[in-house]
Design goal:
By secondary structure, the protein is α/β, with parallel strands linked by helices. The chain is 47% helix and 15% strand. The protein has three domains: 2-135, 3-Layer(aba) Sandwich (Rossmann fold); 140-310, 3-Layer(aba) Sandwich (Rossmann fold), CATH 3.40.50; 313-384, Helicase, Ruva Protein, domain 3 (Orthogonal Bundle). The strands form four sheets. A five-stranded parallel β-sheet has the order 2-1-3-4-5, with helices on both faces. The chain has a five-stranded parallel β-sheet with strand order 7-8-11-6-12. The modification 4-aspartylphosphate is found at residue 54.
Length: 387
């Protein structure tokens, strides 16, 4: 049921608006207030999907109420009701965040169309929020030990900015989860996040993969092709295992970071891109710089913010939560009932040396669920999780 609030000091107009909306759709729940102060009180007490608000009112006018409401809830659509002499003010309220305005006396079709459009917009905002929560859940970082909590704090501080981030840590620690969280919590979350595994792409193809190519640039270039940087425009590009990137590709990435410009392989013209770069590596890039395998200037461009993801051995206290998370996830994937782990089994797994980190733990949990009993016991761990 859509909840609508009408704020109007003229009783006759207020009653007409309430009646029209109630007759238009029985699912509308319509409240009314005779001035801005009482309207604001109602908004603080109840979550409305739409507010219709007069501009000229005693005590608190519509403009003041609009500004006050936007401090409470930036997403609630507010439609201004304007008299003939208030049209300029009504138009100005659009700049302050009003959804629309209608003039007095309200035209029935105009009123109802505006109400429907505003409610549709609010519904879309809610659906997008739900979708973003689902996406965030997919890339949730499990655990609350101090090392991983420090990572979460860093993410919350850095994500809303456009700062470039270099994520470091051993293989299997979840560096890609950190990258996704940075994107999902950023202002770029509605745009694409493009992932590139630099270690999986042959060195002779990495430049074409990142920057695209034009037809005839090389033997297999049978048509023009956009690269990953162009695909990530207005969004985020995640360069995983950047320590494995060739020096020639590093030089082009550096130019993209410095100037916001890329050039397709075989092309002469430049292409402007607006991309946030997040990189990750399991290598010691300072040692790679010393060995001449990584550009120092690129390192300093990438490492505006450094986030170090701890190994699983450094956050053993999170292992019980991770086991439970994987047990539920694997059961859902297989369509089976969730198998639980005994305290003894969990304690034994906490003592293991997890050189493969979280990725290895997930594999072991899946193996135990497949091969173990209805409840995973200490003997199951000894039998099937041998290191």
């Amino acid at each position: 049921m859509s909840k609508i609030l009408i704020i109007e000091d003229e009783e006759a107009i207020r009653r007409v608006l309430v009646r029209i909306l109630c007759e238009e759709n029985e699912s509308y729940e319509v409240d009314a207030a005779e001035d801005g102060i009482k309207g604001l009180e109602k908004i603080k007490e109840k979550d409305y999907d739409l507010v219709l608000c007069d501009i000229k009112m005693p005590r608190m006018d519509g403009v003041e109420l609009l500004e006050a409401v936007k401090k409470i809830d930036t997403e609630i659509p507010i439609v201004m009701i304007s008299g003939h002499g208030d049209m300029e003010t009504a138009i100005n309220t659009m700049r302050l965040g009003a959804f629309d305005y209608i003039s007095k006396p309200p035209d029935l079709n105009r009123l109802l169309n505006t109400v429907r459009n505003a409610l549709d917009r609010k519904k879309l905002v809610v659906e997008n929020k739900i979708l973003k929560k689902k996406v965030s859940k997919k890339y949730e970082i499990i655990g609350d030990c101090e090392p991983i909590n420090l990572v979460k704090i860093m993410i919350d501080k850095v994500a809303p900015t456009d700062a470039r981030v270099l994520i470091t840590g051993p293989n299997g620690t979840g560096k890609e989860l950190v990258a996704h969280q940075l994107h999902d919590k950023s202002e770029r979350s509605t745009a694409p996040m493009i992932e590139v595994n630099c270690a999986a792409i042959p060195s002779e193809l990495i430049e074409s993969e990142l920057f695209g190519h034009v037809k005839g640039a090389f033997t297999s270039a049978v048509k023009d092709r956009a690269g990953k940087f162009e695909a990530a425009n207005k969004g985020t590009i995640f360069l995983d295992e950047i320590g494995d990137m060739s020096l020639s590709a590093q030089a082009k990435v550096l130019r993209a970071l410095q100037e916001g410009i890329i050039t397709r392989v075989g092309a002469d013209n430049d292409i402007k891109v607006d991309v946030r770069v997040i990189a990750a590596t399991n290598k010691d890039l300072k040692a790679e710089i010393t060995a001449g395998r990584f550009r120092e200037d690129l390192y300093h461009r990438l490492a505006v913010i450094l986030i170090s993801v701890p190994s699983l051995n450094d956050r053993r206290g999170d292992i019980p939560a991770l086991i439970n998370h994987f047990a539920v996830k694997i059961a859902n994937e297989h369509g089976n009932a969730v198998k639980y782990f005994s305290k003894e089994a969990v304690s034994l797994l906490q003592e293991y040396d997890w050189t493969g980190n979280i990725r290895e733990l997930r594999n072991v949990v899946e193996r135990l669920i497949i091969l173990g009993g209805n409840e995973i016991s200490e003997s199951d761990v000894k039998a099937f999780a041998s290191k």
